[in-house]
């Protein structure tokens, strides 16, 4: 039996599937790359029927809205081919690329077109793009918006790369007013430069952590909230690390300010007290904080004060991590985790009694809704047949050389995780990372 009068191309049957926020047995009918029916386990049939194993759960493909691909310009750090293969191997079927660390940054329509040309034939999963808001490019934002970016990224302090300068408060307010006029979204790296001090050279993680205190995030997020309130712009705080900012965000939303917030797998998995000296693979900005802070982030996810979990996949070459010296002042800050996000978050979630349905909401449904991808992030009729086959009880050890991102550096090297992605489907067909790419470049509203 199919959906409607036309036969189905494929039916996927699962004894466990996450549908409508619940886990249940289901069959998913696919036609021409779209989900056209979701029914009970035995209610759909087709010429091709795929039955999941008893230890597998069918999830929607994950949506990761915070990925630094770095191509063109820093392709030795990462590129579209390696990043999207890593995404597919991790159950991620859609990424949205950040406007910096590529050269040129995505701050003009010309730069966006150049990035799209580079990405077009290298995408194993679907790819969208953020535009960048930097001093002097207010006049470029409308053109980028019309060209289909999903919103704009800005920094409130030095970004770490000279071609993407930060917005001082006056420029930030001007950019937010333009974002409000366009009806789009500003995503903000929110740390206050006046609260950040220079990191002392040395191998002690404590020195790096103290250079970027909680107050840097708390103060910057207060500015984001005040500016969003004054301009009426939508704002989104990226990679929240300091849980002390949650009450400010909660109060702002209760008062009608349109502000959302994400956190990342590394802030939910690691804690500062167990980071050994010289472990520069764990350097990121803002930093990984203490165990009590980590617990508070989990609580904020549970209460809905944090909306989603995305990777902030920020890779670099092995040399830039300075494993040779272990000097936190010299090492590049960023954690590459695009392939590992789901098992990392699930490993921690199951230990805390958090159901897989919550993880799916945080890592698929909520990010898709943030950027307006109506056909992504859920197993639902009318959506793309983007699926993830996940074995939630299978344990494995992370070997950086087996990961698909370009440089074999991982903060999770040697760690045992629970949960394996066994297959990823893009528009009704399994993705083969050893075969040719068939991802599409996405535009806002298309």
TrEMBL record:
Keywords: Hydrolase, Metal-binding, Zinc. InterPro entries: Allantoinase, Amidohydro-rel, DHOase/Allantoinase_Hydrolase, Metal-dep_hydrolase_composite, Metal_Hydrolase. SUPFAM superfamilies: Composite domain of metallo-dependent hydrolases, Metallo-dependent hydrolases. Gene3D superfamilies: Metal-dependent hydrolases (3.20.20.140). It is an enzyme of class 3 (hydrolase). Coiled coil: none annotated. Its cofactor is Zn(2+). Pathway: Nitrogen metabolism; (S)-allantoin degradation; allantoate from (S)-allantoin: step 1/1. Residues 57-431 form the Amidohydrolase-related domain. It comes from the Bacteria. Its EC number is 3.5.2.5. The keyword Signal does not apply. Belongs to the metallo-dependent hydrolases superfamily. Allantoinase family. Homotetramer. This is allantoinase. The gene is allB.
């Amino acid at each position: 039996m199919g959906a409607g009068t036309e036969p189905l191309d494929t039916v996927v049957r699962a004894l466990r599937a996450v549908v409508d926020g619940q886990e249940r047995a289901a069959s998913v009918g696919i036609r021409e790359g779209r989900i056209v029916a979701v029914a009970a386990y035995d209610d759909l049939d087709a010429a091709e029927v795929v039955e999941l194993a008893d230890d597998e759960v069918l999830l929607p493909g994950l949506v990761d809205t915070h990925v630094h691909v770095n191509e063109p310009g820093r392709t030795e750090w990462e590129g579209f081919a390696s990043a999207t293969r890593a995404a597919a191997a991790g159950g991620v079927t859609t990424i949205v690329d950040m406007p910096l660390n590529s050269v040129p940054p995505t701050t003009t329509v010309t730069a966006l077109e150049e990035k799209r040309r580079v990405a077009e034939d290298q995408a194993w999963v679907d790819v969208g793009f953020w535009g960048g808001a930097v001093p002097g490019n207010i006049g470029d934002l409308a053109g980028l918006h019309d060209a289909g970016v999903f919103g704009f990224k800005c920094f409130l302090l030095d970004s770490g790369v000279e071609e993407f300068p930060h917005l001082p408060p006056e420029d930030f307010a001007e950019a937010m007013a333009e974002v409000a006029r366009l009806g789009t979204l500003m995503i903000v790296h929110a740390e206050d430069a006046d609260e950040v001090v220079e990191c002392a050279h040395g191998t002690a993680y404590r020195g790096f952590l103290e250079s970027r205190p909680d107050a840097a995030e708390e103060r910057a997020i207060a500015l984001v909230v005040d500016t969003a309130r004054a301009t009426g712009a939508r704002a989104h705080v990226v990679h929240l690390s300091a849980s002390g900012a949650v009450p400010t965000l909660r109060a702002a939303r209760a008062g009608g300010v349109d502000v959302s917030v994400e956190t990342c797998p590394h802030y939910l998995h690691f804690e500062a007290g167990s980071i050994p000296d010289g472990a520069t693979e764990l350097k990121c900005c803002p930093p990984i904080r203490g165990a009590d802070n980590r617990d508070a982030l989990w609580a904020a996810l549970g209460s809905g004060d944090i909306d989603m979990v995305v990777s902030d996949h920020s890779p670099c070459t092995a040399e830039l991590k300075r494993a040779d010296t272990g000097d936190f002042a010299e090492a590049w800050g960023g954690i590459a985790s695009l392939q590992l996000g789901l098992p990392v978050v699930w490993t921690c979630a199951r230990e805390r009694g958090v159901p897989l349905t919550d993880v799916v909401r945080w890592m698929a449904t909520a990010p898709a809704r943030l950027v307006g991808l109506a056909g992504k992030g859920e197993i639902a009729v009318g959506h793309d047949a983007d699926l993830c086959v996940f074995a939630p009880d299978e344990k494995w050890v992370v070997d950086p050389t087996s990961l698909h991102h370009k440089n074999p550096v991982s903060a999770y090297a040697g760690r045992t995780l629970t949960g394996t992605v066994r297959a990823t489907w893009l528009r009704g067909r399994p993705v083969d990372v050893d075969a040719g790419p068939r991802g599409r470049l996405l535009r806002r509203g298309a």
